[in-house]
Design goal:
globular; 13 strands; 325 residues; Spore Coat Polysaccharide Biosynthesis Protein SpsA, Chain A; alpha/beta; five-stranded mixed β-barrel
Length: 325
C-alpha cells in the first residue's frame, strides 16, 4: 500500500468568515508561514500534503471555483516573478506555486450536500487507491521536528496497511464541535486505537455514556483531527447512505460511513504529535497565524510582540479600573 493521492475538501463558502469570504475563497486568505513567506491558506495545506510524499492532489470545490483557484494562483506566481525581479524569496515562492499547479486537479461539488457528499465527489480521482483526506480550512502544525502531521499519519497507515483517522484527546466541553470516537488501545503502538464507535458532534452526556476510551485523562475524548488516510471503500459506503437515508437535499455526513468502515475493515485512530487550527472558527485565523509564527523562523520576534501586547493590555485594564466613577 502506497499513499500518493490527497483530497482536500474546500467547497464551503466560509459563512463564519463573512464578509471577507464573499470576496475571496477563505482558502485564499493570506498567512505568513513558518518559513517567513506569506502564502494563501490553501498553499500551506497543499505543502503539508506534497512534502509528505503526496504526488497528486484533488481539491473538491464549488462550481466555478476551479477557474478562480487556477487564475489566482497563476496570477500570484506571475506577479511575484514580474514585480520582484531578482528577489530570491519571490523566486522561491513562485517556484512552489508552479509545483502546486502541476500536481493539482479539481472535482466540483455541484450542490452543498454535506461533507460526506464532498468526499464522494472525489471518487473518480481517488479510484481504487488509499488517499490522504484533508480539510481546506484546517492548518496542521507538527510537534515533531522534520516530520509533518500528514507524514506521521501516512507512515502508520502504510505500516499497518489500513485506513487511519488522526485524533486529538480533547476536553469534554469541546466535543460538541467535532466528530468523536471511542476505541481500544493497540498493544505496542502508543496512542493508537482500534475504532469502535464514532458520533458526529455529540452532547457531553452522550459522550459520557457512549464514547469513553479507557486510558485517557478524565474528562477527555478522542476527537477527529480533520485528517485521514482513507480506504477507497469509503465511496461505496457514502453512496449507500445517499441511497438509503433522508429527504431530498438533506446533507450527507461522512461520520456514518466512517462508522460502517470501522465495522467492515481494519480502521485505526492515531494521536498525532501536533495541533490543528480551524481558520473558520472564532478567532481561528488569528490563532492559526500566531501558531505559525511561533513555530517558525520569526518565533522570537513574534513572542516579543505578544508579550508587549499582553503587558500593554494589562496596563490598560488597570488604568480603566482606576477611573473615577
Amino acid at each position: 500500500m502506497v499513499v500518493r493521492k490527497a483530497v482536500i475538501t474546500a467547497a464551503g463558502r466560509g459563512v463564519r468568515l463573512y464578509p471577507v469570504a464573499d470576496t475571496v475563497q477563505k482558502e485564499m486568505l493570506p498567512l505568513m508561514d513558518r518559513d517567513g513567506l506569506t502564502k494563501p491558506v490553501i498553499q500551506v495545506i497543499l505543502e503539508e500534503a506534497l512534502e509528505s510524499g503526496i504526488e497528486e492532489v484533488c481539491i473538491v470545490c464549488a462550481p466555478g471555483d476551479e477557474n478562480r483557484y487556477r487564475a489566482q494562483l497563476s496570477g500570484l506566481r506571475d506577479n511575484l516573478l514580474e514585480g520582484y525581479t531578482g528577489e530570491e524569496w519571490a523566486k522561491v515562492q513562485a517556484g512552489r506555486i508552479d509545483t502546486i499547479l502541476r500536481h493539482l486537479s479539481f472535482a466540483e461539488q455541484q450542490e452543498p450536500l454535506g461533507y460526506g457528499h464532498a468526499v464522494w465527489c472525489a471518487r473518480e480521482f481517488a479510484g481504487d487507491d488509499f488517499f490522504l483526506l484533508l480539510l481546506g480550512d484546517h492548518l496542521y502544525l507538527s510537534h515533531m521536528p522534520g516530520q509533518r502531521c500528514a507524514q506521521q499519519l501516512i507512515h502508520l497507515a502504510t505500516q499497518e496497511q489500513c485506513a487511519v483517522a488522526a485524533v486529538n484527546p480533547t476536553r469534554e466541553h469541546l466535543v460538541g464541535g467535532y466528530g468523536t470516537l471511542s476505541g481500544k488501545r493497540i498493544p505496542d503502538l502508543p496512542g493508537v486505537y482500534q475504532i469502535e464507535k464514532i458520533i458526529e458532534k455529540p452532547s457531553i452526556s452522550l459522550a459520557e455514556t457512549e464514547l469513553q476510551t479507557p486510558g485517557l485523562r478524565t474528562g477527555h475524548y478522542l476527537c477527529l483531527f480533520g485528517m485521514h488516510v482513507m480506504s477507497p471503500r469509503i465511496f461505496s459506503l457514502i453512496e449507500e447512505n445517499m441511497k438509503s437515508g433522508g429527504e431530498a437535499g438533506q446533507e450527507i455526513q461522512l461520520t456514518p460511513a466512517l462508522q460502517e468502515l470501522a465495522r467492515r475493515e481494519k480502521y485505526l485512530a492515531a494521536e498525532l504529535r501536533g495541533a490543528r487550527y480551524d481558520i473558520g472558527s472564532r478567532y481561528g485565523l488569528l490563532l492559526a497565524q500566531i501558531a505559525l509564527g511561533m513555530a517558525g523562523r520569526d518565533r522570537d520576534a513574534m513572542l516579543a510582540e505578544i508579550v508587549a501586547l499582553m503587558a500593554e493590555s494589562a496596563r490598560t485594564r488597570e488604568g480603566m479600573t482606576e477611573w473615577p466613577r
